[in-house]
Specification:
The longest helix is centred in the C-terminal third of the chain and has 30 residues. The protein has a three-stranded antiparallel sheet. The protein has one domain. 66% of the residues lie in helices and 5% in strands. Strand 1 and strand 2 form a beta hairpin. With 146 residues, it is mainly α. The protein is elongated, with a radius of gyration of 18 Å.
Amino acid sequence: MSTTATFRTTAPTALGALRVGGIVLAVSVIANLLVLAIGRLAGAEMDVVRAGTTEPVEVGAFMVLFMTVLPLALGTLALAIVSRWGERGWQVLAWFGLGLGVLTVFMPFTVQASTGTALTLAAMHLVVGAVWFGSIRQTLGQSSRS
């Protein structure tokens, strides 16, 4: 006789969305701060000049934190809203978040920045998209097995 243990961690509910969003947020912030540190250690200046300006803006830990938290907070809110559609709503948002991360990977190359800085920032876009997608898909996989 074999027994298989399955655990239901989070169902596609509004409360589950907050839990998943919190996990994604924590992992993404830590990962992006790590990417920032690695970029700096590799020599990236982490200064960007936005279109229409001449003054460089330093991309530091606070900016990385803010630019990670804001979209993930909005994504978590959207995930809570689509919870009424169950797993299908979550699947759509998982793919949407991954697509957004991939499509926005080119944004750092639209500002004046060193190649190392642009690559570091682009990596952060991919990190958030991948963590978002993986976390939601993992949660759905666990909830559908129980």
